[in-house]
Specification:
The structure holds 2 protein chains of 2 kinds. By secondary structure, chain A is α/β, with parallel strands linked by helices. Helix content of chain A is about 35%, strand content about 25%. Chain B has one domain (about 20-285). Classes of the chains: A alpha/beta, B mainly alpha. Chains A and B meet through helix 2, strand 6, helix 3 and helix 4 of A and helix 1 and helix 5 of B.
Chain lengths: ~325, ~280
């Protein structure tokens, strides 16, 4: 096809003193997609974003944004990107509108265009009413929206969102998700870092799991999940049910060996998901005279994928701010 | 090339084709406007150059002044204003530091760095805003001085020289502030460090009291303090009581030259340090 990827990283290495934040990161983000960089704290997600957005020079390797090198063509790259970091990067003392106009002009829009674009963004992010107020009076969710608006002012083709929902309450989080989906529909390429598995699952078309500064798995959420054994049925037998009879009854539907556990009171049946499968299994058990309490289809969650890949569960974010309530991911 | 369906920036709306100089001028103007907008929204930001000097002038003129005897006599009210001018200008340095540290720590500087703008414009705009702040501070000192009976007894040229020296002095301290802003990590630290540096700098000088009354070991410290040089130079050029004229110490005998030397020295030391830190942290 010869299509230029939105982001292309080859063997990126970044050292901070003796610690290696990026240890040879390779990444290809196709244009027009929402791409998730998933990893625990300290995996190198933020460092990668800082290299892509020209804030950091890599020690080795190279990165291109829409075909332009982030080191040698940094000025060109800066025209095409938008960055939303972990903390709202705004002038607290200016009004929301003044912030947007300022960023617009610094993004090389003419003064008139910056004002028009600012109003358009305020409208789009439902901030028109608060536009004349100083940002320091804004709630966390409003700041985040203004911050997103600011990163879009300059018509970026590639938008970096570094942990966009860290520290947000569940409402603001849902709203941010909604905005990300709308942006994705507009065709902007989005690189989203997150340590929340459900967030990557919900928003990203493709995911790279990174740990220790390298990509340890890459693919669509479904690919990642099915790489870990795919679906299985969980069968909970009623008290006094015949485990052996149950295994015989479900065997025709299994794609592998049926595992009884909890003293034979539960069965784990590997299956290939198909329409009406659960109903057919229930019927088969019924016909064999095995009473059941519950039959549920289970899929490997990204949590399972993450755990099996990294050997540790995703750590809850270490919050430095006093955000109060925060929804913890799956 | 790829088919990017993201909304494209209308060509007539962008200034990509303009020259680098024109871009730089725009960036400086936009960022300077930002600092001024903040002052207009929150005039109390300027408390350190407006309200503070008023309080100090009134306090020293009417509370302590009566107990301070000037060698060779003369009006303490007239003596005071030369000192206040130096304090008012040097006082702005912690403000620069706080503003820069705030931009660095909130991530705003990172946003600037991700934009196709000039990064040096951040520094230039900050120093312009600082100059405006210092002009406001100097004007406040002059007005309050006039109100308490301070008068100029010399020519317009002398007054112009005094103001030029004061602004050079203030500019030198702007670089001290920029340097602090680059080195320190939080606005609170910048505020506290500024206080620790500038309180003794102001008080161990002839800004408020003649050095003649200080213990012998402290006198040379106070006489070589840049704040004393500016105070003596201002007093000399305004024709105000200047007891330092009888002190046999080089900076007190040549206060104008001492102000220039001090200012140049401070700029030579702190500007390269600040620029180096700025290059490292901001230009990256």
């Amino acid at each position: 096809m010869g299509e230029t990827p939105a982001i292309l990283a080859e063997g990126l290495v970044k050292n901070y003193g003796t610690t290696q934040a990026l240890a040879g990161l390779d990444l290809t983000v196709p244009a027009g997609t929402v791409y998730g960089l998933l990893g625990p704290n300290g995996a190198g997600k933020t460092t990668a974003v800082r290299v892509f957005s020209t804030l950091l020079r890599p020690n080795r390797g190279r990165a291109r944004v829409l075909g332009h090198d982030v080191v040698t063509e940094a000025a060109r790259v800066r025209r095409m990107i938008g960055l939303t970091g972990q903390y709202a990067a705004l002038d607290e003392y200016l009004t929301g509108r003044a912030n947007l106009v300022m960023i617009g002009q610094l993004s090389r829009l003419t003064a008139n265009a910056a004002r028009r674009r600012a109003d358009e963004m305020l409208e789009r992010f439902d901030l028109t009413e608060a536009a004349g107020r100083a940002v320091k009076t804004y709630s966390g969710g409003m700041r985040r929206r203004l911050d997103l608006a600011a990163s879009l002012i300059g018509y970026p083709s590639v938008l970096f969102l570094d942990e966009p929902t860290t520290g947000l309450d569940p409402n603001a989080r849902a709203m941010t998700w909604e905005i990300v989906r709308r942006l994705a529909d507009s065709g902007t390429t989005l690189l989203l870092t997150t340590q929340y598995l459900d967030e990557a699952d919900q928003l990203a078309g493709r995911i790279a799991v990174i740990d220790g500064g390298t990509v340890i798995a890459e693919g669509t959420p479904d690919q990642l999940k099915s790489s870990l054994g795919g679906e299985h049925l969980e069968v909970a037998l009623a008290a006094g049910a015949d485990t052996e009879a149950a295994i015989v009854a479900v065997k025709p539907y299994a794609t592998g060996s049926v595992q009884p556990y909890e003293d034979g009171r539960r069965l784990s049946v590997p299956v290939a998901a198909a329409e009406g499968l659960t109903t057919r299994v229930v019927r088969a058990l019924d016909q064999a005279g095995v009473p059941v309490n519950d039959v549920t289809m289970q899929r490997a969650s990204l949590d399972d994928v993450f755990l099996s890949l990294t050997g540790h569960v995703t750590a809850p974010a270490e919050e430095t701010s006093d955000d109060g309530e925060r929804s913890v991911a799956a | 090339m790829t088919a990017i369906t993201a909304e494209l920036v209308p060509e007539r709306d962008v200034t990509y084709e303009r020259s680098a100089v024109s871009h730089f001028a725009t960036d400086v103007r936009v960022l300077t406007k930002r600092s001024i907008a903040r002052i207009r929204r929150e005039p109390e930001t300027l408390a350190d150059v407006t309200i503070m000097p008023v309080i100090f002038i009134l306090m020293f003129a009417y509370v302590f002044g009566g107990a301070i005897l000037l060698p060779g006599h003369g009006s303490y009210h007239e003596y005071l204003i030369g000192g206040m001018l130096g304090m008012g200008l040097a006082q702005t340095a912690p403000g620069v530091a706080v503003a820069l540290v705030t931009d660095m720590s909130t991530g705003l500087m990172d946003r600037f760095r991700s934009l196709p703008m000039s990064r040096w414009a951040v520094l230039v705009a900050r120093s312009i805003a600082e100059l405006l702040t210092q002009l406001i501070g100097a004007a406040v000192v002059v007005c309050v001085g006039l109100a308490i009976g301070w008068r100029v007894h010399t020519s317009a040229a002398d007054v112009a020289e005094a103001l030029a020296l004061a602004l050079l002095f203030g500019y030198a301290f702007t670089w001290v502030g920029v340097c602090l802003g680059m080195v320190l990590r939080s606005p609170e630290a910048a505020q506290a460090t500024g206080f620790i540096i500038f309180l003794p700098l102001t008080f161990v000088s002839s800004a408020f009291v003649p050095t003649q009354g200080m213990p012998g070991w402290l006198q040379p410290v106070a006489e070589w303090n840049p704040m004393s040089a500016l105070a003596a130079a201002s007093r000399h050029l305004f024709g105000n009581p200047n007891p330092a004229a009888s002190v046999h110490s080089w900076p007190m005998q040549h206060p104008e030259l001492a102000v220039v030397c001090w200012s140049v020295a401070l700029i030579l030391v702190f500007a390269p340090l600040a620029v180096r830190q700025f290059r490292r942290k901001v230009l990256g």
